[in-house]
TrEMBL record:
Source organism of the structure: Oceanisphaera pacifica
InterPro entries: KH_dom-like_a/b, OsmC/Ohr_fam, OsmC/Ohrsf
PANTHER family the UniProt entry points to: PROTEIN YHFA
Pfam families associated with the record: OsmC (PF02566)
Highest rank taxon of the organism: Bacteria
SUPFAM superfamilies recorded: OsmC-like
Coiled coil: none
Protein name: OsmC family protein
C-alpha cells in the first residue's frame, strides 16, 4: 500500500491514497480538514464498522444501519498518543440477534480490524453497543 501527502499551505495537507482517494489533513485547530489524529480515529471506526456490517451480513442478519460513535483520550504530554478509545456501535435492522451483534463487534475489535490491532498495543480499547429494531 502506498500513499502521498502534499503540503498545500499553512498546516494544511492533501493526502492521496494509492487508489486515488483524497483527504484534507490540517494541523490547525480547528482547520479545514481532519487532524492526523482525527484521521486515525476515523480510520479505526471505519475499519471496525466495515467488519461488523460484513460479519452480520454473512450471518444473515437483516442489518439496515451501522454507526460508530468514537471517544478517545490522549496523553497530556507529547507525543500526545491515544491512551483510550471507546467505540459505541449503533446497529439498526430487523430481528437482529443481540448475541450476533455482540459477537460481530468482539470479532472486529479482537481479530479482524487491522487498525485496532495496531492501536491496541498502545492503548485501552473498549466497545459498547445498542440495537435499534427497524
Amino acid at each position: 500500500m502506498k500513499a502521498k501527502v502534499t503540503w498545500l499551505e499553512g498546516m494544511r495537507f492533501e493526502g492521496q491514497s494509492e487508489s486515488g482517494h483524497k483527504l484534507i489533513l490540517d494541523g490547525t485547530n480547528p482547520g479545514q480538514g481532519a487532524s492526523p489524529m482525527e484521521a486515525v480515529l476515523l480510520g479505526a471506526g471505519g475499519c471496525s464498522a466495515i467488519d461488523v456490517v460484513s460479519i452480520l451480513e454473512k450471518s444473515r442478519q437483516q442489518i439496515s444501519g451501522c454507526e460508530v460513535e468514537l471517544a478517545a483520550e490522549r496523553a497530556e504530554q507529547a507525543p500526545r498518543v491515544f491512551t483510550n478509545i471507546n467505540m459505541h456501535f449503533i446497529v439498526t435492522g430487523q430481528d437482529l440477534s443481540e448475541k450476533r451483534v455482540a459477537r460481530a463487534i468482539e470479532l472486529s475489535m479482537e481479530k479482524y480490524c487491522s487498525v485496532m490491532k495496531m492501536l491496541d498495543k498502545a492503548l485501552v480499547a473498549t466497545s459498547s453497543y445498542e440495537i435499534h429494531q427497524a
